[in-house]
Amino acid sequence: MTSCRLQSFFQIQNMADLLNVVVAQASENITENATNSTGKPPGTPEGMAVAYGSLVIMAILPIFFGSYRSVNYHKEQKSEKMTKKEAAMFPIMASAALFVLYIVFKLFSKEYINLLLTGYFFFLGVLALTHLLSPVVSKLVPAAIPNIPYHIMFKQGDGDATQYLINYRFSSYDVVSLSACSLVGAWYLLQKHWVANNLFGLAFSVNAVELLHINNVATGCILLCGLFFYDIFWVFGTDVMVTVAKSFEAPIKLVFPQDLLSNGFSANNFAMLGLGDIVIPGIFIALLLRFDHSLKRKTKTYFHATCFAYFVGLMATIFVMHIFKHAQPALLYLVPACLGTPILLAIVKGDLKTLFKYEDTPENEKSEQDDKQVKSEVKKVK
């Protein structure tokens, strides 16, 4: 058994709740030194190039690997899909979460709030990292150590009315992986080191792109367009986003020091990128990879083209930020790039109707799969 047995914790509801917080907080993008508000000396051109280059690479890798993992996860027919209604409501939910965080930070001491958040994200981060690294750790465990399977189940009702409140499979190798990842968690808990922060952030990103699925391109367009306006309003229209971003201490952004070349791993002059600007375009790009697979062609044209468009959009964000010396909402550049590229490509290739007709799981198939899964679990219990 591999780390896929740990996915029960990371089903859509939990990941969506986490994503609400990620999107709510993490859209003050690559901004720590755009205004030099911290009073720290600006980074050297070389240091800034290393920092921004590293952020771009760290942004693209979770999308690439998470997308391919989403294909395998989809084949297992376990994933729930975001509906058009949920996509339309998501920016509203994210706005509510952001404003609640803003009020909380205004009313209460941010030290105590961040203490609670640290514990919460320690727990989530360890599980996310375990899910990601368990296959690797399992291969490193000596064969002499037996791999013993375990299954924790807690259900409500019988027959067709059965509801599985806990359905958790894991193995002794997963326990080894969990122990190893807990050391990273302890490192983050004690020192809040930027490397530990990034390990958790990358794990969150890969898991989210893998497990959060949108069913079709129309749903993706609704989601991205809604968050496009969400990002612009909260960054340019109010001080809410900036206030929360500066108060919130959690591994829901990737950071890289601009003074790494001069200060090494003790560097503290950071550029940053919110996970929302990785995950939101990432789940749409992952859908395009699954669409490419459905076309059964030799090339993954839509996936590779949109990945390149994401890279161009991210570079445009960095460029404009340095020109105007002001925090930039990255989705302002990423959404047009990630939506326009596949649509224009589909028009050129004559795939536009096929692109918008594609669905990961048609509604009638989804209901049949749900029924089969429930019956299969009931038989296993009996």
Low-confidence stretches: 1-13, 30-38
Count of alpha and pi helical runs = 14
- Please bin the fraction of helical residues: 55-70%
Shape: globular
Query: What proportion of the residues form beta strands (DSSP E)?
Result: 5-15%
Main β-sheet: number of strands, strand sense, barrel status?
2 strands, parallel
- Supply the helix-strand structural class: mainly alpha
Instruction: Count every beta strand, where a strand is a DSSP E run of 2 or more residues.
Output: 6
Strand order of the largest sheet: 1-4
Order of helices and strands: HHEHHEEHHEHHEHEHHHHH
What would you say this structure looks like, in words?
By secondary structure, the protein is mainly alpha-helical. 68% of the residues lie in helices and 8% in strands. The protein is built from 14 helices and six strands. The chain has helices at residues 12-25, 45-75, 84-107, 110-140, 172-191, 194-211, 217-237, 240-247, 260-263, 276-295, 301-324, 331-349, 352-357, 363-381; strands at residues 81-82, 149-156, 163-171, 213-214, 253-257, 270-274. The protein has a two-stranded parallel ribbon. Strands 2-3 form a two-stranded antiparallel ribbon. A hairpin with a 6-residue loop joins strand 2 (149-156) and strand 3. The longest helix is centred in the N-terminal third of the chain and has 31 residues, at 45-75. It is globular. Mean pLDDT is 81; it is low at 1-13 and 30-38.
